[in-house]
Amino acid sequence: MNKKISVKNPYVTGEYVVYPAHGVGKVSDVTKQTVAGTELELIVVNFDKDKMTLRIPMAKAATTGLRKISSAETIADALTTLKGKAKVKKIMWSRRAQEYENKINSGNPVAIAEVIRDLHRNENLAEQSYSERQIYEQALDRLSNEYAVFENISAADATKKILDILSK
C-alpha cells in the first residue's frame, strides 16, 4: 500500500478523532487501496479499547460523522450540561432508551452529557434497571474518553472528574 496524503485530507496520522458509532479512535494511516477495481483513499482509524480497525473512504468521512476531538467551547458546554437538572420525560422506557441511544450515537458531546445527566443516580436513589445502567455506562465511557484526550489525562481520571461534577 502506498502511503499518500492528499491536500484535502484534514486528518493526520497519530491524531485522535471521534467516530459517532464507536467513540474516540486514533488515525493510524491514510492510504490508497483498490477495492472492486476502484482506487480509494482511506482513513484508517484504530479503536484500541475495542480492538477494532475502521477504514473510512476519504470521500465519505464527513457524511459518516468522523470528526476531530471537540473544541474547548464544546467540552465546556458538555460539562455545563452535566451540572443541570435531569430532564426525564414521562414516556415509556423503550422510547426513552431509543432516544438516549440516538444521542450517544450522534457523537455530540453535549447530547451525550444530557444522557449522563438524565440517567445519573446518586447512591441514595432507587436502583437503575440493567438497560438503564448499560446506556448510562456507554454514554459515560464515550464522554470520558473524549474528555481524556482533550485534557491529555487518563480515561479513569476523566471519568472521576465527570462523576465529581455530577455529584455536586
Portion of residues in beta strands equals: 15-25%
Spans of at least 5 consecutive residues with low confidence: 1-7
Biggest sheet overview: 5 strands, antiparallel
Q: Helical residue percent?
A: 40-55%
- Run of helices and strands: EEEEHEHHHHH
Strand tally: 5
What assembly state would you assign to the polypeptide chains in this entry?
Answer: single chain
Shape: globular
Distance between the termini: 52 Å
Q: Roughly what is the average pLDDT, rounded to an integer?
A: 84
Report Rg.
18 Å
Q: What structural class do the secondary elements suggest?
A: alpha+beta
DSSP helical segment count: 6
Q: Please give the order of strands in the largest beta sheet.
A: 4-3-2-1-5
Task: Describe the overall structure.
The protein has 168 residues and is α+β, with helices and mostly antiparallel strands. The protein is 45% helix and 21% strand. The chain is built from 6 helices and 5 strands. Strands 4-3-2-1-5 form a 5-stranded antiparallel beta sheet. A hairpin with a 2-residue loop joins strand 2 and strand 3. The longest helix is centred in the C-terminal third of the chain and has 22 residues, at 130-151. The radius of gyration is 18 Å and the shape is globular. The chain starts with 15 loop residues before the first strand and ends with a helix. Mean pLDDT is 84; it is low at 1-7.
